[in-house]
Amino acid sequence: MDHDQQLIRLMCEGDRDAFSALYQRHHRSIFVYALHMSGDRQAAEDVMQETFTGLIKSARSYDADRAPVLAFLLGIARNQLLRRLRHERRHLTLVDADVDSLAASERSSQLTIKNEIVETVRKSVLSLPTHYREVVVLCEFQEMSYEEAARVLNCPVGTVRSRLNRARKMLVEKLRAIHGEDESEAAPSSERCYA
Amino acid sequence: MKCIEFEHHLESWTQAASKDAIEHAAECRACAGRLHEEELLSWSFTEIGAHVGQISPAAEIETRIMEAFERQQVKERHSSNRSRYAVAIAAGLLLIASVSFALWRRQPTSAPQVNKVNVDLSAAVAAWETDKGIAQVDQKAKPRERRVRPAIKSASTDIAKSEPPTEIATDFIRINYTSPIEPGAQIVRVQLPRSAMTQFGLPVNMDRADQPVKADVIMGIDGIAQAIRFVQ
User: Fold this and answer.
1) pTM: predicted TM-score of the whole model, two decimal places
2) Which of A58, B104, B202, B231 could disulfide-link to B169, CB 3.0 to 4.6 Å?
3) Which pLDDT band holds residue A92 (cuts at 50, 70, 90)?
4) CA of B73, closest CA in chain A: separation in Å?
5) Does A173 touch chain B (CB under 8 A)?
6) Closest CA of chain B from A67, distance in Å
7) Residue B220 pLDDT greater than 90, yes or no
8) Chain B residues lying within 8 Å of A80, measured CB to CB
9) Which of A52, A136, A194 lies nearest to residue B4, judging by beta carbons?
10) Which residues contact B57 (CB under 8 A, 6 or more apart)?
11) Within A13-129, where are the H helices?
12) Element (H or E) spanning A61, and its range?
């Protein structure tokens, strides 16, 4: 039994410290995931709170054989997010005060093309369809393996791989569209030899 | 490496391109562009990750979550107590029901049901005694069962009316020989356990041993039972 499972067991017995330790270990991952997915700090905080509230209620249903605790928590967070996204129709949220403020602070000091590219990618990720966005968030931002992401998303590993590949292509296309002039000379064309 | 292999390589892109891919990109301008795009994308992801990593959730969220945990614990304790109370109440009710049922089952043996017939039978008993005499208890002789005597019927039409015409009764068996049956004695209809018949030497049908049997008891004016007969 690993440390997380032990904490879950103690938490089920009413141990407040065990729950606090679980929170300290995983709240950041949940928050970052929710922030990447929603692009909104308030929504991310709400999702994080709902996730741990959900854990309080459903900790007894946790099955250690199926997934690690983090994957279980991310699964709860994902359900909360999808419900929220469906409800609020926030698929295309492009503006976030906190994230933008960070980008803006850098822009004010040194507005570079690379920062623009980062901003473009960030907004492009937020505009991806949910099932593509979540694989990008888990595999690229959270640096999870395909297997770990598949456990969170409850889908085959091959699906994760193909969705990620497709998402990357979509993001490259968006980059090309926005920075067309810069990239035109390097863009793939019929010059490529597929023979 | 050919361009198509290079493209397949990009499809399984993880963190960096392989040596072969880089060599191919150095020779092919189009593939170099694709490689640059993928690298730019990966670099963007890293940058975004770093930016978002600087944002922390509000501190009061933890407080709220810990409060929710404590509330849930209190709720579970209350729920557990409620369950215990419910089980205790259910057990109590079950116990009361069991005791009541047991008492109800035991009632015929401990307190026979008595149907008092408020009829003065002195004339009937006197007539019956002179006519037939009171049957003596004979342990060896098999008691006769016969229909209710017409003499009693005629003497007490109320009793005859109250009893179903198909009733069969034994003779009256004296219980107490110390005093004669005096006028004013009363017949009382009672229900007794069938085993009571054995005390008067009467056979008991074992198929119906658990069923009570009706009996008429002649009660003297002093309240002492004088004679009994069993009715079917």
Assistant:
1) 0.57
2) B231
3) very low
4) 6
5) no
6) 23
7) no
8) none
9) A194
10) A27, A31, A44, A45, A48
11) 16-38, 41-58, 69-88, 97-109, 113-127
12) none
Of B48, B62, B76, the CB nearest to A122: B48
CB contact (8 A) between residue B76 and residue A14: yes
What is the average pLDDT score of chain B?
Answer: 74
pLDDT, tens digit (0-9, with 9 covering 90-100), for B48-79: 888 888 888 888 889 999 998 888 888 877 77
Query: Between A113-127 and A97-109, two packed helices, what is the crossing angle to 10 degrees?
Result: 170
Residue environment code for B27-61, b if the CB has 16+ CB neighbours within 10 A, otherwise e:
ebebbbbbbebbebbbebbebbbebbeebebeeeb
Q: Which residues contact B117 (CB under 8 A, 6 or more apart)?
A: B158, B159, B162, B186, B187, B188, B189
Q: Tell me the helices (H) and strands (E) count for chain A, helix number first.
A: 10, 0
Cα(B151)–Cα(B124) distance, integer angstroms: 7
Percentage above 90 pLDDT, chain A = 35
A44 touches B at CB < 8 Å: yes
Chain B positions touching A177 (Cβ under 8 A) are: none
Calpha distance B203→B142 (Å, rounded): 8
User: Which of B149, B143, B113, B163 is CA-nearest to residue B203?
Assistant: B143
- Report how far residue B55's alpha carbon sits from residue A32's, in angstroms, rounded to the nearest whole number: 8
